[in-house]
Amino acid sequence: MSRIFRRKGAQGPQDRLVTLIRKPGCHLCDDAQIVIEKVCGELGVPWEQKDITEDEELHRLYWEQIPVVLVDGEQHTFWRVGEERLRKALS
After folding, report:
1. Which of 31, 49, 66, 69 is the most buried (most CB within 10 A)?
2. What Gene3D superfamilies does the entry give (predicted)?
3. Interhelix angle for 27-43 vs 83-90, to 10°?
């Protein structure tokens, strides 16, 4: 079972966390990862990815929306990731 933790009181970029929920072979997921890598790399924000095919809870919650992007444990977006919108959420 997956647990998604919310980060409260984030002070700097290193205190934030972006999570990409994806599945193998998903071209939208690949596109989302490119945006996340760029924005998080430029801002110094850590990020992680989770595979919904390996987690029943994530599969149940997000199957119809992947890729899904969480910022500090809260759903930020799904399907398409906008670079400027993600940057604004992390600033």
Report:
1. 69
2. Glutaredoxin
3. 40
Domain extents in the chain: 24-90
pLDDT tens sequence across 48-68: 999 999 999 999 999 999 999
pLDDT band at 11 (very low <50, low <70, confident <90, very high): low
29, exposed or middle or buried, with CB in 10 Å at 0-12, 13-18, 19+?
buried
Q: Taking a C-beta distance cutoff of 8 angstroms, is the pair 65, 79 a contact? A: yes
Q: How far is CA 5 from CA 27, 31, 72, in A?
A: 27, 25, 7
> Tens digits of per-residue pLDDT, 15-53?
999 999 999 999 999 999 999 999 999 999 999 999 999
pTM: 0.86
| CATH architecture for residues 24-90 | 3-Layer(aba) Sandwich (3.40)
